[in-house]
Amino acid sequence: MPKMLPLEDGYMIIPEKAGEPCRLLGSYSKAAKKSFFPIRKLCPITSEPVETVELSPEGILYSWSFIRMPKLGSRVMAEGGGQGVGQIDLPEGVRVQSPIDGQMGDWKIGMKMRLVPNPVVTDEDGTVYCGFKFTPVKE
Amino acid sequence: MNRDVYIIGVGMHRFSKDGIPLRDMYFTAGMEALKDAGIKFRDVGALYNGYIGGSMTEGIGFSKDLGLTGVPITHVENASATGSSAFREAVWAVSGGEADVAMAIGYDDMLRGMGNPMAKVNTKKKKMPSMENIMLPAGFFAMWAVRRMHENGTTVETYAKIAAKNWNHGKHNPMAQRRADHVVTAEEVLAADMIAYPHTAMMACAAGAGAAGAIVATEAWAKKHANGRPMIKVLASQSQSERYTDGHIFMGAVVGPSYSTEITSKMAYEEAGLGPKDLSFVHVHDAFPVEELMYYELLGICGPGEGDRLINDGDTAIGGRIPFSPDGGLIARGHPGGPTGLAQIWDATRQLRGEQDKFQVEGARTGLVHMMGAGSICVVHILQRV
């Protein structure tokens, strides 16, 4: 399996061990008792310090669309003529915007979604740099 | 406001994709506004240039075509709300006493690239696309539309009716980028290419280039330069950035949590001392029809969940109870970026003077002008004929 790294530091963790879920990195404010994504420098509600936390890898689809636009990092239209996009509510009360796997007809508001790496660029040495996306969970 | 502020001149260069140099568009908009006001550039005490794309000194360079008068010039950028924010700065310059006459000119070409989704960030290894560009505004608004359908039972036909209305409003506007040569129907809008479900290409704002300007002044200047026309007073000027709310989205395109419009308009109504029932027409950031639908409710024009009925009853068309985007809005008049909010001011001022001929809102006395900028920011002005 090729080595996978996040496109940028500070947004997500991709475990080296196969089978373990990747996770988004967020902030938790003890003062406001709220979580945020991505990481905040201070609590946006109280301006108190926050701590970095790993967010749940699964959430619920709040809304979706299929857009006829290239994927992140590309100027070429994706296979299938576009890509799915969604807003996913994580159990911590965080709403995340993200590409989603699937085609028109695959998505339903309220369905369970799981975070997975989204390969964007492959380096000369075979390292795959990834963003993130969510994929429907078959129940 | 410390001093009363009046709009004494407005000017525009037609929005288009014709490749006209932006420097020429800027000059036309500026000169038309000066001509409309009946003043010279040397009379302007503060100038605010609004543009999103372009190089560091572009706006100042363009302004040299109007004259070298030593006027203080400031570059303003607030995404789609750039022109509205430049106008607000001009209003505050006059209100606060910095200048008796202030000018805002917005220009841009949406097609020359702003907010490049290919923008790179430095990583340890090499330059990579930024994670922050994970979502474009078209996707963001499409998800608003899908959620609205889920929660309120709104249909794609309703979105198509809003877009068709605005195409038909823009038909008679000589400054509009899209001027249909026939009556546009909801069926035609729905038959266009799907770009971001449920939005078709005819539901999306027209991307192109253009310029617009406005000149504001004190009451004394306004009286002196009224030239027999009604005076147009700025009753309210309000702007708000985001506040935290449940489900707050920080990453990717965000063009205002919906409450931004609700809060900012309430502040504007309070400043103006009037309410939604007093409005003759409304301009909004209608980049996609779901926005206009939501703003019916968020601006208090109707109750929550009642917006669909307004469009189905024709209330928001010219001739209806409260016309929205009488000049065609972002969908038909166009949305180059920098000048968009000032194009709204151009139309609102001329509507209040009774100068808009075939797209005139009869008896227009008070207008509300609303704009959202990605990031995000909300700007609301209320104007009145006095």
Comma- or semicolon-separated keywords:
heterodimer; A: 139 residues; mainly beta; 6-stranded mixed sheet; 4-stranded antiparallel sheet; 0% helix; B: 386 residues; alpha+beta; globular
Characterise the protein shown here.
The complex is a heterodimer of chains A (139) and B (386). With 139 residues, chain A is mainly beta. Helices cover 0% and strands 45% of the residues of chain A. Chain A has strands at residues 4-6, 12-13, 23-29, 34-36, 51-54, 58-67, 83-89, 95-100, 112-122, 128-136. In chain A, the strands form two sheets. Chain A has a six-stranded mixed beta sheet with strand order 1-10-9-6-7-8, with no helix packed on it. In chain A, strands 2, 3, 4 and 5 form a four-stranded antiparallel beta sheet that branches. In chain A, a hairpin with a 5-residue loop joins strand 7 and strand 8 (95-100). Chain A is globular and about 45 Å long. Chain B is of the alpha+beta class. Chain B is 33% helix and 20% strand. Chain B has twelve helices and 13 strands. In chain B, the strands form three sheets. A nine-stranded mixed beta sheet of chain B has the order 3-2-4-9-1-10-13-12-11. The longest helix of chain B has 16 residues, at 22-37. The model of chain B is unreliable at 115-119 (pLDDT under 50).
